[in-house]
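fyi for ur records
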Amino acid sequence: MPRYLRIALGGMLLLLGVAGLVLPILQGFLLIAVGIMLLARDVPLFARIASQIRERFPRTSHAAETAKRRIAEWWRSRFGNP
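which gave:
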């Protein structure tokens, strides 16, 4: 995924996550976690936070890495390797 797209999507997910903390319809913590994982590659602060999340929740981290790998495979099959 291109860097600009990853940063834009991660930022939007963080904003939706913050809104989801007060709105009953959105899953705030889930959107924040996904936004952090997307931004971890480009922003050092989010890389440290993602590292701490991986250490504290290893099973969830494994599931997230599996999903990340499957999304990357789908992206490459659809759009090629960037």
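Residues 11 and 58 are 25 Å apart (CA to CA). thats all i got for now
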